[in-house]
Structures are given as C-alpha cells and as structure tokens.
Write a structure and sequence with these properties.
This is NACHT domain-containing protein. There is one protein chain. This protein is an alpha/beta fold. β1 and β2 (161-163) form a beta hairpin. 41% of the residues are buried. The model is unreliable at 1-66 and 662-667 (pLDDT under 50).
Length: 669
C-alpha cells in the first residue's frame, strides 16, 4: 500500500472536476477563505480523496514509492489522539481522509499530510505534490481569466452580454480540406467545384488533438481553415470553454488562446513564447521554466486568425527556435510555430482563412481540418437561442425560410448574426410584428460592408473609398464575365490577368476563397472562387450598377449600338434594366436570375443609401423603382416561361411591398 499521494496523475486536476467531488460542507468551507494558496490546498485535499482509488488500480504510477499505511496511521493516532480515537485497523483510506477533513480545515489537513510524509522520508513525494498544487492553482486562475474573456458574447443589438452557450450552437467541422465553397443554389445546379474525392468525416472541437489522435498521428499541429464568417473564432471559443468546464481535453493541463489580433502588440519586442503567455495571462507568472518542458504538464496553444498576421512568413531565412523560454521576436516565434519546432511537446491549433495555408511550406508537418459553418438544424437553433422572445425567433426563422437564397447563405454564422442584428433592430424600433426587409439585397449589402470594412480592419491598413470602389469594380467585372460563361471558379494564374489583388480578395476582405484542385494525376492547381455563387452574382450586379451610375455606360448594350447611341445621349436607367431583363430571359438555365434580383434590389432607396459611398455623384432616379416595377409587369405578361416569370416575381419583391401590386405567389423567392 501507499498513502494519499501514491496515485497516477498526469496533471493537476482542474478545480471544475475537483469541486464536483466536494460535499456541501467542503463547499461552505471554501467560501470562508478564498485566498489563492488556501484554495489550492483545498482543491488538492479533495483531489486526494478521489484520485487515490484510480491510482490503486493503475499499475502505471508516477511515484511508485513503497509506503506503509499502517505506519502513517500510527503517527496520526499518536499525535492527534483527540481526533483519531477509533481502532486504526477498522479505518480504511477513504475513512482516514474523511476523518482528517472533518476534524481540521482543508489547509491544515494538507499541511499535516505533507509534514508527516516528509518526516517519513518521502521528500520527492512532497515536492511532487507541491508541484501539482502550484499547477492546479495556476490552472484555476487561468480558467477564471478565460471564463471572463470567452464565457460571454455581445450578440444582442443593444450590446447586452450573454453566456456563449445561451447564444451559439455547434458547427460543422470536417476532417478534409480543399472542400471549396458551399455551392447550394436556389436556381442553378452547380457542379462540384473541388476535386476532393475523399468523403469528409464530421468531427467536433472535442476531437481536435485528443489522446487517441496523438496515439495514431505524429502531428501535434492542426490547421483549422474556413472561409470568412464560417465560425473559426466561434470554434476556438467553444474549445476554450469546453476545456474550462472539463467537457473535453482533460489531458491538457494548460490551454492558452493567443489570438494574432492580440499578438500584434508584441511586434518589435524581444521576448519569448513564455513571456507572451505571462503578459497575456498574469496567472502564469508562477509557472517555472521546467513546467514548459515537463512531459506531465501538457500545454495547448491556440492561435486564432493567422490571416490577421501581416508580416511576411519567411521559412527559409528564419533562425531555429525550439525552447519556449528563449528570447527572440514575434516573427521568429510565428515561423517556428508553423514549423512545429517550438515546444515540441506542446499541442498547437492555428485558425486561418484558406489563402494563408498556401504560405505554409510543403514539408511542414501538420494536419488540416475545415469549418463549414452551420447545418440546417443549427441555423434554426441559433436564432431560437439568439432571440429570447420565441415569437420573434419564429418570425426570423420564417423570414429566412421564405427565400431559399437567404436560407442557404445562413450557413455562415456571420450572415446569421447580420440577419439577427437587423431583425432585432427592427423589432426594437417598430415592434415584433413590424415588416422585415423584402428580398435578399439588403442583407447581402450588409454582409459586403461587414467584410469590406469591419472585418478587414484587423488584416490590412484602412482603404480609401476610391480604392474600395476600384477593387469592387475589378472584382465585379470578373464576376459578371464568369457568370455569363457559367463559370464559378478561376485558376490563380488566370486571376492575375484581371489585375485583381488576390490578397485583398481572399485574406483581407474574405469575399473570395482559395483552395487546391487535382484535375489530373500528379497535378495540383490553386483556384479561387467567391465565398458563395450568390456573392459572385451580387458583385456582378453591383458592377453593372456602378458602371451605369458612375461612368454612364450600359454593360448590357451591344458595343456597336452603344457607340452610335453615345454620339447622341447616354443610356437611361429604364434602358439598362430592359437590357438586363432581356439578357436574363435569354438564359434558359437561369444563370442570371439571382443577379437580376440583386440589380433590381439595388434600385430600392434603402439599399442605395447603403451603397452611397461607392457612387461618385448623387443618383437622380426619382422614378426608377416605379419604372422598374412597370417593366417587370410588362415582361411577365409577355413571357410564356413559368420559371422566368417566377424569377421576375422575385425581382418585383426586391423592389419593396409597394411594388408588389396584385402579383400573387411571391413566397419562396
């Protein structure tokens, strides 16, 4: 036999798990004295009671010291007769621990145990227990700090913070990469854009870098990719909170989230990875250098947002760094992390938009997984959690289900958040039964600005409006050209011919994504796509509108006809929309249907107000909406194609409720 501390322990048990073994009396004592040192000893004492029995049956003990339980009993009965007055032979281990805790405070019980273990020559055991106590104390304080930082999110329109679990749901994460964008479409049946033949296996954040994974894989570095707004940071938050609450990664002693957004403050400084951890999490000041190197002290580092790191990642000319306590600079630390050289015992998770993955060298040893956003059921669950009022949640779910395009685009958590914010604002200002935005253009315009400005600011210097406009014009021109050809992906080599900055398109704004296809054996090709085909259609419509409004050109007119007309007068809005409708009706496969809806939707005043920064001069189209509605009704009368008429009905819906007139059956547009 051995006493309390002879058990198998890989790391200090977390307070969350330790407290779950306490009696109500233990908890009451805990509240009386909340100093960190006392709290540590309290946790360790309760840990003793639980862990001994696991260790008794486990042959793989960390400290297999021969110990005579009877001898320890004799010491207790000798020095504390007032507490131990029953026959010692009738007292087993659990009774002994319980009796100590009944008679003495948890801290005193701990000190009594340590004192007499040392007296019996078990100094290594005492040192080991002190180490566990120190780590457990740091872990507790780290967990409390992370809970404050990650436990609540500000999702509500009014800025109210709510527990993360009360707002967000699970994400769809798959074990494969290069899956390409979501191609589900309301009108078109788009062929598979990627060439990934491997069936993706769904996993959760709890499956990342687990003990089972580490036994079967030599990689301790995971790259989590995903398009803009797909939920990468949400996955990180879920992983952190599950670790805090002991729902997953129980083998990890310390988990350190290190967002690149926060690491930027250390640019230009000389420091080590351990220094960074201590500055971001002061509770870790108590950790010693050997704790970072110890096999029993498993550490996981989570680096969120590699796409926000704007320094060049130079894998060829960067010095080797393998010790987390060695001083260097941030660039060297990041490169060695990506090389999986720094802290080779550690576990690393890095999240990024797909473009940055191309910066990782081919010989870097890592595994890659991808987050794809929400499934159908998770979209509904998100809105049900987001809105405290169930009637409001039901209205929002009904709203996104009324238009398949909205429903599909809600696979992106970012888009769900935008829809929820707008609906919440309307409910707050006008009441629960207020009319929600017609059509799809308004929400897509909100998404454009979220990506182009709010999310971009963390990744690149602020752009002027002129540069934004120029970028959107180039990207929109390409989008329209590809759309008319029925093309939804483009090789990176062809992309450069269009004079579009791929860094601006993929990692900065996130309007596009990059992935690898394998069209032939032993041939890999980098290709780019828009984050969804409907985003391609939206940008194409925006290009057509800005070309007309700013340059006075109609992109739908034949070149010769345009030259002749240009000699006399410029095109009118009615002519542009007439040409657009005619071009759309010529496409039997419906490839321009959603594009046309966006183009008409941009006629609406509310959408033009949002897009105003991109117009070089104020628009003067006082009757544009009425003229567009009249044109659509005329074309609906003339057309004999039910599918084309259905899309024209949806275009009418984009113009607002006043334009609907007597047109019926506008659902599912």
């Amino acid at each position: 036999h051995s006493f309390f501390f002879r058990f198998y322990v890989d790391q200090a048990l977390s307070p969350a798990q330790s407290y779950s073994t306490m009696t109500s009396e233990d908890s009451a004592k805990l509240e009386e004295d909340d100093t960190s040192s006392t709290r540590c000893k309290q946790v360790m004492s309760v840990l003793i009671r639980k862990q001994f029995f696991q260790g008794k049956k486990n042959k793989k003990t960390k400290l297999n010291q021969k110990f005579d339980l009877r001898a320890f009993k004799r010491i207790l009965w000798k020095y504390y007769p007032q507490s131990f007055n029953t026959p010692p032979q009738n007292t087993d281990l659990v009774d002994l621990v319980d009796r100590l805790l009944e008679c003495y405070s948890l801290e005193n019980s701990f000190q009594i145990t340590k004192t007499h273990l040392a007296e019996m020559g078990k100094n290594k055991l005492v040192e080991y227990v002190d180490t566990l106590c120190l780590r457990n104390e740091v872990r507790y304080e780290l967990a409390e700090s992370l809970k404050q930082k990650y436990g609540e999110v500000c999702e509500d329109f009014g800025g109210e913070k709510r527990p993360f679990d009360d707002v967000h749901t699970t994400l769809k994460i798959v074990s494969t990469c290069d899956n390409g964008p979501n191609i589900e479409h309301e009108v078109m049946k788009i062929g598979k854009l990627d060439s990934n033949q491997e069936a993706p296996k769904e996993i959760s954040t709890a499956d990342i870098l687990t003990p089972n994974y580490l036994e079967t894989s030599s990689s301790r570095f995971i790259l989590l990719t995903g398009v803009a707004g797909s939920g990468k940071s949400m996955a990180v938050r879920r992983l952190v909170l599950d670790w805090i609450e002991e729902r997953a990664h129980k083998h990890v002693t310390f988990l350190f989230p290190l967002p690149f957004r926060e690491l930027k403050q250390f640019e230009g400084e000389k420091l080590s990875l351990a220094d960074i951890v201590k500055k971001l999490y002061p509770a870790t000041e108590k950790l010693r250098d050997e704790d970072y190197r110890c096999d029993e002290c498993q550490m996981m580092f989570v680096f969120d947002g590699l796409d926000e790191y704007h320094w060049k990642i130079d894998f060829e000319n960067t010095e080797l760094l393998s010790d987390p306590t060695d001083t260097s600079n941030l660039k060297v630390i990041v490169v060695n992390l990506m090389r999986a050289r720094l802290l080779y015992r550690g576990l690393f998770l890095v999240t990024t938009r797909p473009y940055v993955r191309a910066c990782v060298p081919w010989d870097a040893h890592y595994d890659e997984i991808e987050v794809l956003g929400f499934r159908d059921t998770q979209r509904d669950e998100y809105f049900q959690k987001r809105f405290k009022d169930s009637s409001q949640a039901a209205r929002v779910i009904e709203y996104i289900n009324s238009t398949k395009t909205l429903r599909v685009m809600c696979h992106l958590p970012l888009f769900c958040s935008i829809v929820a914010n707008e609906c919440q604002r309307i409910f707050k200002e006008k009441g629960t039964h207020a009319e929600l935005p017609n059509g799809i253009t308004y929400m897509y315009t909100k998404l454009l600005f979220a990506l182009l400005r709010q999310h971009r600011k963390w990744r690149a210097p602020e752009n002027s409006v002129d540069k934004e406009r120029d970028f959107l014009m180039k990207l929109g021109k390409l989008a329209l050209s590809m759309l008319e050809q029925g093309q939804y992906k483009i090789a990176q080599t062809d992309w450069k011919e269009h004079d579009i900055n791929d860094q601006e398109a993929v990692p900065y704004t996130g309007l596009c994504t990059q992935y690898v296809t394998k069209p032939y054996v032993l041939f890999h090709e980098n290709v780019l796509s828009f984050i969804h085909p409907t985003m391609q259609e939206y940008l194409a419509a925006l290009y057509a509108l800005l070309t007309f409004a700013n340059l006075g050109k109609n992109v739908f007119e034949e070149k010769l006809k345009n030259k002749v007309k240009g000699m006399f007068r410029g095109p009118t809005p009615s002519e542009m929309y007439k040409n657009a409708v005619d071009r759309c009706l010529q496409c039997e496969d419906g490839r321009l249907d959603i594009f046309l809806r966006f183009l008409f939707g941009m006629t609406l005043k509310t959408n033009q107000e949002l897009l105003q920064p991109f117009f070089t001069s104020p628009l003067k189209w006082p009757t544009a909406t009425e003229d567009a509605a009249a044109l659509i009704r005329k074309r609906m009368k003339d057309s004999q194609n039910p599918e084309r008429n259905r899309n024209l009905q949806c275009c009418l819906k984009e113009l607002g409720s006043r334009s609907l007139g007597s047109v019926s059956s506008l659902t599912d547009c």
